[in-house]
Amino acid sequence: MIGRLMVRVCLAVLCVALMTTSAHAAQVTLEWDRNAEADVQGYIIRYGTQSGVYTVEINVGNATAYTLNLTPSTTTTYYFVVQAYNAVNRSGNSGQVSTTVAATAPSQSALNVDKPAAGAILPSDTLLSGWALDRAATSGTGIDAVHVYAYPNPGSGARPVFLGVASYGGVRSDVGAAYGARFTNSGFSLPVVGLGAGTYDLTFYGRSTVTGTFNAVQTRRVTISQAPPITGGAAAIGLPAPNARVRTWLSIGGWALDVRSTSGPGMDVVQVWAYPNPGSGEQPLFLGNAQYGVARQDVANAFGNARYRNSGFYMDVMSMPAGVFDIVALARSTVTRSWEVARVQRITVDPAVLITIDRPTESSTVGSSFTLSGWALDRRASSNSGIDSLHIYAYPNPGSGAQPIWIGAFAPNRSRPDVGAAFGSQYNATGFTVPVSGLAPAVYDVVIFGHSSVSNSFDNGRLVRITVQ
Questions:
Q1: In whole angstroms, how far apart are CA 102 and each of 21, 27, 31, 206, 216?
Q2: At residue 447, does pLDDT exceed 90?
Q3: Which residues make beta-bridge pairs with 112?
Q4: Which of 156-160, 245-249, 334-338 has the lowest mean pLDDT?
Q5: Which residues 6+ apart lie within 8 Å of 123 measured at CB?
Q6: What are the angstrom distances between the C-alpha of 23 and each of 206, 207, 217?
Q7: What's the pLDDT at 18?
Q8: Which of 103, 163, 202, 210 is the most exposed, having the fewest neighbouring CB atoms within 10 Å of its CB?
Q9: What whole-number distance in Å separates Cα of residue 202 and Cα of residue 215?
Q10: Nearest alpha carbon to residue 261 among 343, 333, 341, 330
Q11: Superfamily of structural domain 233-349
C-alpha cells in the first residue's frame, strides 16, 4: 500500500574519505538494508551541509550502496538520509548519518595506466601497469602506494573487489625524461589472477606523500573473457600448472606470438618475473629472460601457420624462496617493439628439501680460494637429515650459456644444533663446509643440488651469486 510505504533502512557511512579523486575531492560510500515491501522500486539519497536540510537528491535505483565524490573547498560536515520509493510514492527519511570531509591540500599528482587500454578484452589473468607521481613533492616521486579496485558491472552499485597493492618503484626512464630524473622510479605493476568474466571499471588510486591522500586516480573499463579474441599478441604459461605446489627448483615454460607478424612468431624476448605474496605490493623478483624459440608444433597447428612453430619459451629456476608467488611471463613484440602481452600463473613454493647457504653471502666478492658452508635437510625424513649427497657446480658469467664447472659431491654431516632446534633433533648433523679453489676471476652462480634419500632424486637446489677476484 502506498500509504504504508516506509523506509526500513539502517543507513551507515561505510567508508569516509577512503580515496580522494582530485586535489579537493573525497569518496564517501553509503550502505543501507533493503526494504521488505515487494513493490519497492528503488532508493533516493538526500544530503546537505546542514542537519535536517537536504539540498541534493540522487536516485540510485535498486542499489543498496552508493559512492559519492564530495568536493569541499573547506572542511565540511555532510548529513545523509535515504528514502525508498515505489511506482507512485516515496517513504519518509531514514535516520540521519553524517561525516566530516577535510579539504585536501593542493598537489600536482598524475597517474597513467599503460596496461590495460580502455575497452580492452582481457583474460582472467593479466598484468596491470603504469606510473604515478606528484610533482609537488620536494624529494622522491611523491607517491608511496598504488591501490587497485575492480568495480563489477559499472553503475550497478555492486561492491568493488580490492585487487591489491601494486608493486611501486619500477624504472620508467621515459617518465624521468619527461618530468625529471627523480621521477624515474615511478612505475607500478600488479598481476591479477582469477578475475571472473564480466565488465569492470578498474580504478587505480595513487597515494601522494605531499597530501597523504589517494588523489591520483585513473579508471579503465575492461571486459574479462575466458577466451579473448586474438588480434595482436598472445601467450600462455604451461609450466607450472595453475595453483601448483612446487619445490624451489622449478621449470617455467609456454609460448608467445604476435599474429600481426608477417615473418617468424612475432616475439623476440620473454622476461619472467615472480611477485611474492600477491597483492602485497612487495617488489617482484626478476628471474631472467627465458630461452625463446623452442619448437611448438602444437601452437603452429592451433594457429594454422608454420611461422608460429618456434614460439615456445622455457627456463629453469633454482633457489626460489618458499611462499606464494604470481609468476609473470612478459613478451616483447617484434611488430610494435613493446611489451604488450603478459600471462600470470599463481604457485606455492613449498619445498620438502631445504638448503641454505650461509657463506659466501649473496653478491659478495671472494678470493680464488674460499669456503662454502650451510645446511641441508629433507623434512620428509623419518631419521637423519634425509639428504645423502650435495652436488655443487659453479656457473660462470650467469646467463652466458657457458658450461658449469664441477666442484664436487659432499654429504652434509657437520653439527648444526641451531637447525636441530628449529626442525627437530634428528637434523642436528645437517651442516656442510666445502673448500672451493681454482676458479678463474669472474662472476659465478654457485649452485648446490640436494639428493634426497627419501625420494632418491635431486629434489631441490640453492644458488648464491658471487664474484671471484
A1: 13, 11, 21, 18, 17
A2: yes
A3: 131
A4: 245-249
A5: 224, 225, 226, 227, 228, 343
A6: 12, 12, 11
A7: 33
A8: 103
A9: 16
A10: 333
A11: Immunoglobulins (2.60.40.10)
pLDDT computed for residue 107 by the predictor: 63
Whether 29 contacts 65, CB under 8 Å? yes
Of the listed ranges 31-45, 343-357, 427-441, the least confidently predicted one is 31-45
Question: Each residue of 227-286: pLDDT tens digit?
Answer: 888 888 899 999 999 999 887 778 999 999 999 999 999 999 999 999 999 999 999 999
The tens digit of pLDDT for each residue in 8-42 reads: 444 444 433 333 333 345 678 888 888 888 888 88
Predicted TM-score (pTM) of this structure: 0.64
Which set of grid coordinates corresponds to residue 24? 579537493
Torsion sign across C-alpha atoms 84, 88, 92, 97: positive
Cα angle 395, 403, 405; round to 5: 55
Topology of the domain covering 109-224? Immunoglobulin-like (2.60.40)
What is the arithmetic mean of pLDDT over 337-357?
A: 91
Query: What does the alpha-carbon distance between residue 154 and residue 464 come to, in Å, rounded to a whole number?
Result: 49
Chain-centroid distance of CA 65 in Å reads 28
Torsion sign (Cα): 124, 274, 285, 398: negative
Would you kindly state where each structural domain of the chain is located, as residue ranges?
A: 2-101, 109-224, 233-349, 353-468
Q: Nine-digit cell at 8?
A: 526500513
| Nearest alpha carbon to residue 195 among 349, 29, 344 | 344
Beta strands in 49-142 (DSSP E): 56-61, 65-70, 76-85, 97-101, 109-115, 121-122, 126-134
Q: How far apart are CA 206 and CA 148, in angstroms?
A: 9
What secondary structure does DSSP assign to 61-74, as a single string? Answer: ET-SEEEEEE--SS
Q: Which segments of 153-192 are extended strands (E)?
A: 161-165, 167-170, 187-192
Mean pLDDT throughout 52-65? 88
DSSP letter at 425 equals G
Domain 2-101: what homologous superfamily?
Answer: Immunoglobulins (2.60.40.10)
- Asked whether residue 380 carries a pLDDT value surpassing 70, the answer given is yes
CA 390, CA 408: separation in Å to the nearest integer? Answer: 8
Q: What is the pLDDT of residue 104?
A: 55
Higher pLDDT, 169 or 20: 169
CATH fold of 353-468, please? Immunoglobulin-like (2.60.40)
Give the single-character DSSP code of 417. H
| Cα-trace Rg, the chain | 29
